[in-house]
Amino acid sequence: MTIEIAKIRSDFQILDQIVNDEPLVYLDSAATTQKPRQVLDAIRAYYEHDNANVHRGVHTLAERATADYESSRDKVRAFINASSRKEVLFTRGTTTALNWVAKFAEQILQPEDEIVISIMEHHSNIIPWQQAAAKTGAVLKFVYLKDGELDMADLRAKVTNQTKFVSITHVSNVLGVINPVKEIAQIAHDHGAIMVVDGAQSTPHMTVDVQDLDCDFFALSGHKMAGPTGIGVLYGKEALLNQMNPIEFGGEMIDFVYEQSATWKELPWKFEAGTPNIAGSIGLGAAVDYLTEIGLDNIHQHEQDLLNYVMPQLREIEGLTIYGPEDNQRRGGVIAFNLDGLHPHDVATALDMEGVAVRAGHHCAQPLIDHLGLPATARASFYIYNTFADCDKLVEAIKLTKAFFGV
Ligand SMILES: Cc1ncc(COP(=O)(O)O)c(CN[C@@H](CS)C(=O)O)c1O
């Protein structure tokens, strides 16, 4: 193991529970990860010792709360290697972040301009672009798949000088495939387009360097990276953020307010109207500290170790189909699968009876599931606290499910 798994598991008390008379095996981290006590302690400490509103008070608690909040921004900046803290905007999560970028697109798109996304996108990286296209007369184009991965020849054919935005997921929450977003950003920039990366499923699992990727926008969610729900980040290049109109208006984001007009604060606060999710940002900062201490390259390798251990066992199970790339190195710790003769919901329910928590459904990626010609899939997803024993239990539970249903 590349990480101290026993030490890590001791930080996640939630994992030590019995579900349906079986030890819990949590394999749904792509939906949301569990939170270590270090994150929970940081949130509790804020509420018990530093709680106050930020950027508004001159009293000691307000200064401490503001310092805590802005310190988390600095931690995220370093974590994704943004060049400036001005480029790190706190949002509710990836969905909000991508909606903000699509709102910016509405500012600049003209009829017949083109937006390019892929068929493997999450709904939060599809519907905002549908809305932007509908409101501006722009054309939304999809890049399709080849051998369970993005068809790069199709992408190169579809990104043209008419393309103004390219928005692609870094890692698919269904196929698990890791997309070459650095290469795609170069293709987008060669055609004068803005590159947007959905980083929900990559940020928790591997080193992200937004300057190396040279993406123009990058979205992430705290709850997918051992942090609390309700907090995420939109990274944007400063020059573009300065062109973006604020999305929400009110306190905090203003310099001066007159009866009929107002002026905006500088970045990043221009985009942070109202009282922010202070505790959530502090929890996100603690999650960044926790993951940084383990090491993102170590986390990625741990998930590769789990994939290399479990995939051969899964592929030996008759009637089990796995979606996504054959090569484990082309995927993160996400395995979508189906069992012949069973609906994925029945599979997930049966696995839950064995204490194994997986997701079933369309995973907020209905166009992909439809494109694959499927009603739905089951999905197992791994994180830092999963072990080879968890993998063994998944394999055993699938075999028991097959036997129980006689398939
Ligand atoms: C690639 C990708 N992009 C965006 C999102 C949205 O993240 P939010 O924190 O909900 O805003 C998700 C969240 N996918 C969860 C919930 S549907 C899953 O079970 O796969 C995602 O995986």
Automatic annotation (TrEMBL):
What does the record give as the reaction this protein catalyses?
(sulfur carrier)-H + L-cysteine = (sulfur carrier)-SH + L-alanine
Q: What class of enzyme is it?
A: transferase
User: What InterPro entries does the record point to?
Assistant: Aminotrans_V_dom, Aminotrans_V_PyrdxlP_BS, Cys_dSase_SufS, Cysteine_dSase, PyrdxlP-dep_Trfase, PyrdxlP-dep_Trfase_major, PyrdxlP-dep_Trfase_small
Which Pfam families would you find in this protein's record? Aminotran_5
Please list the residue ranges annotated as the Aminotransferase class V domain: 25-394
Presence of the UniProt keyword Transferase in the record? yes
Highest taxon of the lineage: Bacteria
Annotated EC: 2.8.1.7
Names of required cofactors: pyridoxal 5'-phosphate
Q: Which GO terms describe its biological process?
A: cysteine metabolic process
Give the keywords, sorted: Pyridoxal phosphate, Transferase
Could you give a GO molecular-function term held by this entry? pyridoxal phosphate binding
Q: Which NCBIfam families did the record assign?
A: sufS
Stated role: Catalyzes the removal of elemental sulfur and selenium atoms from L-cysteine, L-cystine, L-selenocysteine, and L-selenocystine to produce L-alanine.
Q: Which family does it belong to?
A: Belongs to the class-V pyridoxal-phosphate-dependent aminotransferase family. Csd subfamily.
Return the PANTHER family for the record. CYSTEINE DESULFURASE, CYSTEINE DESULFURASE 1, CHLOROPLASTIC
* Name under which the protein is recorded: Cysteine desulfurase
The source organism is: Pseudolactococcus raffinolactis
